[in-house]
Amino acid sequence: xxxxxxxxxxxxxxxxxxxxxxxxxxxxxxxxxxxxxxxxxxxxxxxxxxxxxxxxxxxxxxxxxxxxxxxxxxxxxxxxxxxxxxxxxxxxxxxxxxxxxxxxxxxxxxxxxxxxxxxxxxxxxxxxxxxxxxxxxxxxxxxxxxxxxxxxxxxxxxxxxxxxxxxxxxxxxxxxxxxxxxxxxxxxxxxxxxxxxxxxxxxxxxxxxxxxxxxxxxxxxxxxxxxxxxxxxxxxxxxxxxxxxxxxxxxxxxxxxxxxxxxxxxxxxxxxxxxxxxxxxxx
Length: 283
Ligand SMILES: [Zn+2]
Ligand SMILES: [Zn+2]
What we know:
By secondary structure, the chain is an alpha/beta fold. 35% of the residues lie in helices and 17% in strands.
């Protein structure tokens, strides 16, 4: 049984394969459920020229990610069309930083085609994506402050934003620990992460096991075992699983390991969403 609820097509500026190629690969792999969840970083809703009418600021690295209004909307419409041909297909979106641009979030969330919304946090308010930050030039206290702010913003998102499952809780560790080899004292964030999980459980929302870290230097799922188990202990019931593939070759990569991890943490089901309602598959 294979299910992949977090994938990107070339409607996402940083992904490579067309929706048709992704669907053909999903059919070949025999996926039970497969969601296209292209990026919609809400703070990048407008094209760069409209976001920065006086010129793009020096050092701004995400010019190509701007314009989610156009590419995220187009992805949803295209995926909805393809559902006719591929019955396993679900129409999703990876909603980034919804509280940084609530009007943009409201617009994309109003699209009736949506089955699934992943809530993600890729950058702290006023900062660049964690992908771009130069951790090697920071001292450890600065890194801890960045992470603390990130968990505070995620907590706020979990309390106030509309989404179905929380994307890659430990996303910055992919770069800090994985790419830079800097060890982080995660124990200092235990309390806020517990609050994040309790809030999600109370609101009937889930977390995902994002398996992308397994094929990257980090070598662990996002989040890893300790947190998947903690979510269960906090009353969490909705667990989704996704590869975060940005090309057809990575589709469903690491999913069997992710399902084993879910089982080991006490989960008997993984969830998927249809028209924003959770459905469960026994594992
Ligand atoms: Zn993401
Ligand atoms: Zn993603």
